[in-house]
Amino acid sequence: MAGSLTNGNPPTMRRLPLPALPTTRRIVAAWPAAVAGTIALSLAGEGAAHAAPPTPPLSSLPTAPLKVLPVLTSLTSAVTYTVQPGDTVWGIARANGLDVASVQAANGLGPDSVIRPGQVLVLGGAPAAPSAPTPVPAPVPAAVTHEVQPGDTISAIASANGVSLDAVLSANGLTRASIIYPGDVLQIPSGAPAAAPAAAAAVTAPGLDAEQSDNARLIIRIGRELGVSDHGIRIALGTAMQESWLRNLDWGDRDSLGLFQQRPSMGWGTPEQIRDPDRATRVFYGGPSDPNGFTTRGLLDIPGWEQMPYADAAQAVQISAYPDRYAQWEQPATTWLAVLG
Asked: Could you tell me the pTM of the whole model?
């Protein structure tokens, strides 16, 4: 029986050697991800339209669409990146010398995937399916563009380049009712009819997904309709990007909502009106056709706004607690207007 005595003495105990413990390895999980589109905004002052903008800012975008970099096939060790508020797959890829396709492939993402703060992206190492060879894309013809000159028409541009009017409209997201202005840059598609659908599907601005590009087109279209200058349209694009990441948000700081994070409590409209992207954009521009009348003050109501620095003009409308953050979007907005406008 365990624990009995022998000759009145306690039994002799033997200490058995313990087996060596296995070495533990910490595994870092890579989260699949998506483009963050949330910004909470803090207001300072009367009539503030919105909430506190996101941090940290994305790196500036170029003034022209970027050339696609070669997809990296392998790295000796995996490199990861933790998504910060305001990050996009495009911005992360560019900051690390990668192209969007390689980052998406390494993390199992699609074109419409959304990343969120705190998620971990794999920036190097083998892609999700290393056994399958990466298909080599077919050679793409060199992009042809045309900068609109005074007196140009879309039909004349199409004819001069040997393509149909509908092909040019489709390649640039335009309709027969669209208006072009001197300085606009049009994409001229290939003359092959089969290429037109692919060109139309690919019209998204650098750094923007399909939803953001659609909202940017709406801001541009309404600006053109109201006779706003390109400078004013760029201000509207950058303001919406700073306030909501060009997404029609149903939340925000305090009661801020929508593309421009306007506040019902400050007279910008009812929640339903503010969540109407068309109306919210017209209210931001303001002027004689402002749906709010004189209740709020839009960009066109600011005396001398055309001569103001980019960020100062945006701040005059939004009254943000972070007025300096609008400036980072001036260059990207110029690119978005050139591609989508």
From this structure: 0.46
